[in-house]
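User: Hey, my collaborator sent me this sequence without any context and asked if I could get a structure. I don't really work with proteins. Can you help?
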Amino acid sequence: MPAYFLMKKIVLVFLGLCLFCVLGISLLVNFFLISSNSSRSRNEAGSFNEVHYSGKRGGDKVAIIDLQGVISYGAPGSGNLNMVDEFLAKLEQAEDDDSVRAILLRINSPGGEVTASDVIYHALKKVDKEKPVLSYIQTVGASGAYYSAVGTRYIMANELSLTASIGVIMQTMNFQGLADKVGVQSLTFKSGKMKDMLNPFRPATDEEKAYVQDLINETYGKFVGIVAKERKIDEETLRNGVADGRVVSGRNAVKENLIDSTGYIEDAISKTKKIAGLPDNTEVVELQTPFSFSQLFRIFGSTPIDKVELNIGPASAKLDAGKLYYISEMSLAH
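Assistant: No problem. I've predicted the 3D structure and written it out in structure-token form, which is a compact way to encode the shape of the chain:
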């Protein structure tokens, strides 16, 4: 009998410990979710951390904002927003902060979506009317990233960086030959002859190719026009010269009048202070996204094992079929 009661007591203690662990895990998960939602609210309100970079703390500041990676509304930022909205929120915070006297855009991007690049360009133009905004191309500032940069009043780049790539690209693939070999057929119902344009399971018609090319030319025309206006270059000179999609080094970009000078990040900071009329010891800060527990869930998120992906081309590009891009594929090549 004593052994029976002892065993019963051990079982009850064990069950109690299990219940305690379950409750503890539940409280911990709820804490993570509440913290994540709180961080998201702060992030969406534009509350980004100011991380000291250099200079004397306190007083006026120069804010560094990064434009990094493929510019896309579908690309995640470092917090809970997509990278475009996160960038715009940082820019808005710097604009509204009276202690931030100037902004330096640090660019490491091959470009991206046409609309996203144009939105960023427009936002930079708007802020530059209130306080100086400069750009520094550190490694790559091509296509849509360069489009964005011309919205600032001064562009500096590392002389070995890649920039320009003034052009538009839209891609799709044709799998008809492969589908025929493996016995796959595509059945499409559509409301009009152009509705399944760029269907990868059939060749594009001449009419479709002409239509897409007209769309490309229209979008390219806006890109060239923006560069010609902002950089004060004759548009025909651009079209017949460097605006053929090529990337150029920072050194050659100066010769083509696409940027203003070359240098290192310290030179760009000094130039920003000079244009803003600030002393050399002015504090420089970087705007960074606050930590969010949701980032842990993103890091440790599970990946389905019953999924097969076929990736052809640079893994970092992943261009969506049917979308227009201001992007340099050459700068993405590995």
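In plain terms: Residues 46-171+205-298+316-332 form a domain with the 2-enoyl-CoA Hydratase; Chain A, domain 1 fold (CATH 3.90.226.10). You can pass these tokens on to your collaborator as they are.
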